[in-house]
Amino acid sequence: MSKNVLKIENATMQFGGVVAVDNLNLEINEGEIVALIGPNGAGKTTAFNVVTGVYQPTNGAVWFNGEKIIENHPQGKMKKLYKGQHDGEYTGVIAPTPDKVTKLGMARTFQNIRLWKSQTVFDNVLIAKHCRATSNVFSATFRLNRKEEKEQREHVAELLNTVGLYDVKDELATSLPYGKQRRLEIARALAAEPSLLLLDEPAAGMNPQETDELTAFIGQIRDEFKLTIFLIEHHMNLVMDISDRIYVLDFGKLIAEGTPAEIQNNKRVIDAYLGVADDA
After folding, report:
1. Alpha helices in 146-235 (DSSP H)
2. pLDDT tens digits for 145-195?
3. H helices present in 20-131, as ranges
4. For the chain, which domains are there?
5. Whole-number Å distance between alpha carbons of 166 and 80
6. Which residues pair with 136 in a beta bridge?
7. Are 214 and 202 in contact (CB under 8 A)?
8. What is the spatial distance between Cα 262 and Cα 177, in angstroms, rounded to a whole number?
9. 226 C-beta neighbours (distance < 10 Å), count
10. pTM for this entry
11. Closest CA to 97 of 79, 85, 109, 111
12. Could you give phi then psi for residue 86, rounded to 5 degrees?
């Protein structure tokens, strides 16, 4: 039986009178590539933001590798929810901040590329290694832990070689073609050594050739780094080619779940999102 990596349980995210995510339940098992699709405004990125600690949910819970890391049941009491939190009972919202989520083993990209524009390709990835550093602020400032720094730089070089960016490591990140900037953003996420990688519309803005290359790249890094991948994407060829399973959101509600073939033939999904081809 496959190990459960991520479980979202009855998650609701409300902004005033708008319910962006409505009682969402989904599960992702180890080694899977799972897609979350739906029309614009369906609540997909909001769901990612709940999982990664950007938003504290109005209600519900998130489990990661069998451990409850996020929970909000305002009327109830909760025990210790993630490593490093003190034992005891708490009321209200308990959730790790995004940096703690990263340390737990999740990393993500965003719809809009967020690279350090004035930094090189190498330094963009090196910056992401800080979450795994054991040095404190003092030793890092005065570069006292040179062994750890050397190991980090070696790991970044290996990572860039693996993802095909080593030859441009000294170039400014923003000088890269768009497709390579997307690849760099994924490489930076990989530098945090995640077991679960969340990709928010990784093919956005890509031409067909870049999209085909990205499809192969996602499969490559899943196998190379033994990852579980959770992605949001509007490019249906990529979704259908790469996904093991697909969840579909519409107006914040889950309306379908299944294999790519099942989703393609689901009438409710076709009506809400995929549409049907003109008979003519």
Report:
1. 146-162, 178-190, 208-224
2. 677 788 889 999 999 999 999 999 999 999 999 999 999 999 999 999 999
3. 44-51, 98-104, 121-127
4. 1-104+244-280 (3.40.50.300)
5. 42
6. none
7. yes
8. 36
9. 10
10. 0.85
11. 85
12. -70, 145
